[in-house]
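Whiteboard transcription, Tuesday session. T.W. wrote the structure tokens on the left side:
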């Protein structure tokens, strides 16, 4: 009986989670995606090989919103991602087609968005709002040499590579890229040793948007392609407007 009651309670809680839509919400633009990420009992190994069973349980979300640049072919760029989580970290798998991989600016803090780079926009409390020179949200720019860069509260680019473990490998004509990300609140302080990542739990809702800057040899990036449509205003403003982010719901 106790076991049955417990099962019933679990079912009720799961139903309650499923029945609570994160969207729509006044702090976000209409038409945001909702992504439900399954919990990983065993953390994926961040090695650019997506052979962990938990990835099979997560669904692909496509990058199809063309924010900058002309139309492109499927040989030039294609991208999609999946998300899973543990109590300690968020894990994101990216799969990309990109015909030319390029990292022209060797200094990781200079014009990094004009090199090929994978962008992960994260808003820990799904607050939406402005986040350019603050940590209301993070916009990690993952370079081909696996560094994670974003603006700090001093208005300058900072290296946040200690927040993100990043590895990618080529497989056929694709890049398979895995990330493990520590999640910080808006209380994060640059250059402090006292920042502690938050513990994640089922039912938590975060803001998430994913994008790729594709350059194949031009002075500036040729395309900027994201996971969320931008209906009005500058389309590349995810680096400062967390209202564009979709809802990431942590499922059991
Ligand atoms: Ca792996
Ligand atoms: Ca390309
Ligand atoms: Ca926030
Ligand atoms: Ca490229």
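and on the right, the sequence the group agreed on:
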């Amino acid at each position: 009986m106790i076991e049955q009651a417990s099962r019933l309670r679990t079912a009720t809680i799961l139903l309650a989670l499923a029945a609570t839509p994160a969207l729509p919400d006044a702090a976000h633009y209409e038409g945001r995606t909702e992504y439900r990420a399954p919990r990983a009992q065993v953390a994926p190994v961040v090695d650019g090989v997506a052979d962990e069973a938990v990835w099979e349980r997560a669904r692909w979300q496509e990058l199809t919103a063309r924010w900058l640049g002309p139309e492109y072919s499927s040989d030039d760029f294609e991208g999609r991602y999946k998300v899973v989580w543990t109590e300690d970290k968020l894990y994101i798998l990216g799969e990309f087609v990109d015909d030319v991989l390029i990292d022209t600016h060797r200094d990781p803090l200079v014009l990094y968005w004009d090199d090929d780079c994978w962008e992960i926009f994260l808003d820990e409390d799904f607050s939406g709002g402005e986040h350019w020179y603050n940590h209301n949200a993070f916009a990690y720019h993952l370079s081909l040499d696996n560094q994670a860069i974003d603006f700090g509260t001093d208005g300058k680019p900072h290296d946040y590579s200690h927040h993100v473990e990043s590895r990618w490998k080529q497989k056929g004509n694709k890049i398979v890229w895995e990330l493990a990300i520590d999640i910080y609140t808006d209380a994060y302080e640059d250059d402090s040793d006292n920042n502690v990542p938050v513990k994640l739990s089922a039912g938590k809702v975060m803001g998430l948007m994913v994008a790729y800057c594709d350059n194949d040899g031009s002075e500036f990036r040729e395309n900027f392609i994201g996971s969320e449509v931008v209906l009005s205003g500058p389309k590349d403003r995810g680096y400062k407007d967390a209202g564009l982010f979709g809802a990431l719901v942590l499922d059991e």
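Someone added at the bottom: DSSP finds two helices and 14 strands in the chain.
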